[in-house]
Amino acid sequence: MTPVKNVIFRKSGGKCTITASGVLDIFEAQHFLQAAQKLVSQPKATQLVLDMTAVERMDITALQIIHGLLTASTSSGTRIEMVGLSESCAKTAALIGFDI
Question: Can you give the residue range of the structural domain that contains 17?
Fold first, then answer.
């Protein structure tokens, strides 16, 4: 898993955190998804937190990935939550029909 400039991954016990900043677009979304899938598939992972506090803008690809993560049921029972989504990102998500 290669970190990209706008996405940071941390694991502490059963809690995994993905912190994104700046613009989360198609170029970073694939790395974001791969990391999230890898973190949730770990046997000791009980919680995945998507920290979007520093995200200025997301494109449709990033929104689709986040929507999919939040609505997917995980076989490992990992809880997935998102924190810090800006009002503008939430409005963009709502415009395309995503309730995130």
Answer: 7-95
